[in-house]
Structures are given as structure tokens and as C-alpha cells.
Design a protein that fits this description.
5-stranded antiparallel β-sheet
């Protein structure tokens, strides 16, 4: 992956430091650098997605005691195209003061949150939604 970045920098460096290169070669070197940069960005994107999937799988196996949580309400599912893997659904929750964006892979959890009209206890780790539970309110005395 990093050799594409090195190649892009090399091509751009050659085109900038050697002014006597014929114009056709200059365009070819710049185009080669641009293509190498695009390949680097594509590989970087895939690597970030793979790391996020691995992180999600690890978080899904953890006990809820080790997860972060808050009490809040479900706001909406964002249907815009996600920058991450298609396996994730982008969801928004509100904890009473701010909106919290989370990503979820589990369709049962997504449905449970989307159909809930009550407050939820939201369990997550590193912006990955793991589970939601109905908040059982204690009666006021």
C-alpha cells in the first residue's frame, strides 16, 4: 500500500524538479503520480474498513459490563451512503443534551431501536452500537 504513496510522491517530485522534461513526458509522469495516489487512497479506504469490521466483531463479543452506555432515545437512521462498509447502518441517538451517531451491524438491534418509543439504554464501544434495552423507569414517590 505504501509503495503506491511512494510512487506518487516520486512521480510528482520528478515532474517538479526536472523542468527540461518534454511536455508529453511531464503529462505522463503527472498522470502516473495521480493514478498511484488514487490506488493508495483506495487501499487505505479498504484497510480502514477492514480494521473497523474487526473492531466491530471484537466489540460484539464483549460482555455489556465492559461496554460504554448511556440512556437516550432513538432519533433516526441515516439513509445516506455510509463511508464505511455496507454492513453498517448509521443511527442517531439523543441522550438529552447531544445527538450521538453510532454504527450497527446487527439487524435485530437496529429494529429494536427503531421501533422503540421509550428511553433506551444504549450499549456501544468506539461508536459501534452493540445492544439496546428498554429503560425501566422507577415510579416516582
Amino acid at each position: 500500500m505504501y509503495y503506491h504513496l511512494f510512487a506518487a510522491l516520486l512521480f510528482f517530485g520528478i515532474s517538479l524538479t526536472i523542468p527540461t522534461i518534454p511536455e508529453a513526458y511531464m503529462v505522463a509522469v503527472l498522470l502516473s503520480g495521480f493514478i498511484a495516489l488514487l490506488i493508495f487512497l483506495k487501499n487505505l479506504y479498504q484497510q480502514v474498513n477492514n480494521k473497523f469490521l474487526i473492531q466491530a466483531r471484537k466489540a460484539e463479543t464483549e460482555n455489556s459490563i465492559h461496554l460504554s452506555s448511556f440512556i437516550g432515545t432513538f432519533v433516526m437512521i441515516r439513509n445516506e451512503e455510509s463511508p464505511l462498509s455496507d454492513e453498517f447502518t448509521f443511527m442517531i441517538f439523543h441522550d438529552g443534551s447531544i445527538e450521538i451517531p453510532l454504527f450497527c451491524r446487527n439487524h435485530c438491534v437496529i429494529q429494536k431501536a427503531a421501533h422503540s418509543k421509550n428511553e433506551l439504554i444504549v450499549y456501544y464501544k468506539d461508536y459501534i452500537l452493540i445492544n439496546v434495552e428498554e429503560n425501566e423507569k422507577t415510579p416516582n414517590h
